[in-house]
Amino acid sequence: MKGSVESALTQLKAWLAQPDLPSDGRLPPERELCTLLGVSRGALRKALSTLEQDGELWRQVGKGTFIGARSVEKSLSISTVAEGSNPLEVMQARLLVEPMLAGEATVHATGAHLAEMHRCNRIQREARTWRQYENADNRLHRTVAEATGNTVLLALFDQLNAIRRTVVWGRLRDKPDYPPADHKSFGQHELLVRAISERDQEGAYQAMHDHLMTVQESLLRASSRGSGSEPDNF
Amino acid sequence: MKGSVESALTQLKAWLAQPDLPSDGRLPPERELCTLLGVSRGALRKALSTLEQDGELWRQVGKGTFIGARSVEKSLSISTVAEGSNPLEVMQARLLVEPMLAGEATVHATGAHLAEMHRCNRIQREARTWRQYENADNRLHRTVAEATGNTVLLALFDQLNAIRRTVVWGRLRDKPDYPPADHKSFGQHELLVRAISERDQEGAYQAMHDHLMTVQESLLRASSRGSGSEPDNF
DNA sequence: AATTCTAACCAATTGTAAATTGGTTTTGCA
DNA sequence: TGCAAAACCAATTTACAATTGGTTAGAATT
Q: Which one-letter DSSP state was computed for residue B208?
């Protein structure tokens, strides 16, 4: 009959109105529920589908059908994301996000931000250990994010950074002992800070993009070189 | 003999100095390693223990023994970020992030992604309740993030979305009962999906940007109107 | 002829039991 | 007494079967 789906919808709504449904918001599997309501599985599924579009329940393969809104805490775990990712993917995300942050920083950066960036540049030039260089690099990138003046963007950067660290952790065994000598990054970092200082939005975007491109290139070079350590300040 | 532990420590350090140890930093299980080094398990364990106290490796039952420092997962609290933010700031972050995601989606979107986006468009056109409309909107935006094919970008979008929901949580009084009638968003959503379908990167970026601009405008209009409900699908 | 129902199959997830692994205790031996 | 070997324990991973939402093909019904 034609109205079988509507009938199923009615039956389903009536069943959901029951006061004694399980407290975890999970309703029986479709194969049980359809016999319980005396409708075919197809009709039940169409009824469930409309209720899902209304946001009154949500379904997931292998898990079940649940009342209410989907739980959000799914992919917020940094380690979970990191496990399903790889250095190249993180790098490409950085290539999209960080130049945008640099461009935004040109609009909102304060004098304190600029001073801190210059300080990072100086520390990098004078760095004598890899650790010093790396710390200054991290600090510079985060200062750019701070300079956007947007706490949400800063939180996103921190999330990206945490994912990056977790992805790299375990892969990078032995870091070099000394900072890079003939390194492009020196000049690129200074170009970046200059562009932000001069409120050159496009220039800052480009400088950050170029810098991350060289990082990506050395990353690719390293991974193609085999199991060797990943270089640069990735 | 007395110096068996010291012998084990020496052997172990020599083994760790090997250049071809596995890249994940994991050592062979104790039962293998002790035969490998020709020492008893007890002596090996004492040697491992001293190295662990020195922070040169860490161990966990059932997992293994690893070189380096334990990974630390510091979880970034969404509610903390949300408390120090506001709807306008979230909106500006969206304006910077989501058009970029849309542009990237044009490169990597699969047929399944496009089908899902069209489905969201259709549901929005046919929506009869606000909740239906809002669900489809959320779904569409998330599908765009999925279509980037980058799990890190997807995680960042989820983070941004979670912040948005938390920020809006306490401020949104009463939602309208019916979906928007003369709404710009209809056309904008369809423009967006069309641009992604046609692999028009710049067009997708622009469409998402325009869409979010109208959302922001209505948000500003609402907040200037006083304590009234924030409209649209913010 | 069209629709709907049934059954089978698929893919994601969960549940479970066995195997693995670091930590501890017991036993054997010199 | 001291140490090595074995046995045992608990946390974790792995392998595999069972469950569950999603899909498709063919039979059944109208």
A: H
pLDDT (tens digit, 9 = 90+) per residue, B178-196? 666 556 777 899 999 999 9
Residues of A in contact with B129 (CB under 8 A): 54
Residues A78-224, CATH architecture: Up-down Bundle (1.20)
Q: Which of B23, B92, B132 sits opposite A54 (nearest CB)?
A: B132
Q: Which residue is nearest to nucleotide D6 (CA to C1')?
A: B41
What is the CA angle A176-A177-A182, rounded to 5? 70
CB distance A157 to A101 below 8 Å:
yes
Q: Give backbone dihedrals phi and psi of A33, rounded to 5 degrees, phi first.
A: -60, -35
Whole-number Å distance between alpha carbons of B211 and A179: 46
Helix axes A30-37, A4-16, angle to 10 degrees: 100
- Which of chain B's residues have a Cβ under 8 Å away from the Cβ of A160? 152, 156
**Which residues, 6+ apart, have CB-to-CB distance to B1 below 8 Å?**
none
- Please tell us whether the domain made up of A4-67 is placed in CATH 3.30.70.3270: no
| For residues B147-174, average pLDDT | 87
pLDDT digits (tens, 9 = 90+) for B152-161: 999 999 999 9
Question: Nearest-CA residue to the C1' of D5?
Answer: B40
Position B112, amino acid:
A
Structure tokens at A26: 């999970």
Query: Contact, B190 vs B121, CB < 8 A?
Result: yes
Tell me which of A7 and A181 has the higher pLDDT: A7
Domain ranges of chain A: 4-67, 78-224
- Judge residue A118's burial from the number of C-beta atoms within 10 Å of its C-beta, 0-12 exposed, 13-18 middle, 19 or more buried: middle
